[in-house]
Amino acid sequence: MPLPNRTGPRASALATVMFAATAAALGAVMLLSACAGSARADDRAPAKALKELKGTWISDDPIESKWTFEGETLKASVNGMDYTCKVKVDPKASPATIDFQIDEGPEEARGMTSKCIYKLEDGKLILCVAMPGKDRPKEFETVEEESFLFELTKENPGDKDKDTKKQEKKD
Fold it and tell me: In the chain, at which residue ranges do the beta strands (DSSP E only) sit?
């Protein structure tokens, strides 16, 4: 059976609609692909920031503290009080933010979140940490009953070994 001739105004309109639908579908696929690529790039930013924070950071002035970042976990000792926290970082915020969900620590702080701002500057980690449950600091400054400023330097693993050897010689 021969196929009918489908040329004419009706066939032309149908072809135009099909072309437009195909173009729209193709555009949607391209847009979704671009968004997925962008999302993957955004997912890498926190991972990169956590990698930059990895290691042990120390301070002894004015508050003696030691902060050890390992992936999304922080173990900190501040003035003799120990904390274990889950870390959530947003390096794209201005200033960059970090939240510490306190899993272990003083009873009144457990289960709470300390909201912070941070920056890495000249080999130092500068953290302004809000008291658990308080609003995120806006400036890098200590505010009584609200937030504390920490200027931390990265602990050199070689220095730790030297201190251990010095102690062994004394004993």
Answer: 55-59, 65-70, 73-78, 81-90, 96-104, 113-121, 124-130, 147-154
Which has the higher per-residue pLDDT, 123 or 37? 123
- Non-local (6+) Cβ contacts of 81 within 8 A are 105, 106
pLDDT tens for 40-80 read 445 678 999 999 999 999 997 778 899 999 999 999 999 89
CA–chain centroid gap for 63, Å, is 24
Overall fold of domain 54-161: Lipocalin (2.40.128)
For the entire predicted model, the pTM comes to 0.67
Supply the DSSP string of 40-71, one letter for each residue.
HHHHHHHHHHHHHH-EEEEE-SSS-EEEEEET
- The 3-state DSSP class for residue 37 equals helix
Cα–Cα distance measured from residue 51 to residue 71, given in angstroms and rounded to the nearest whole number: 7
Cα 63 to Cα 38, 56, 113, distances in angstroms: 41, 16, 20
**Nearest alpha carbon to residue 96 among 50, 58, 59, 134:** 50
* Mean pLDDT value across the chain: 78
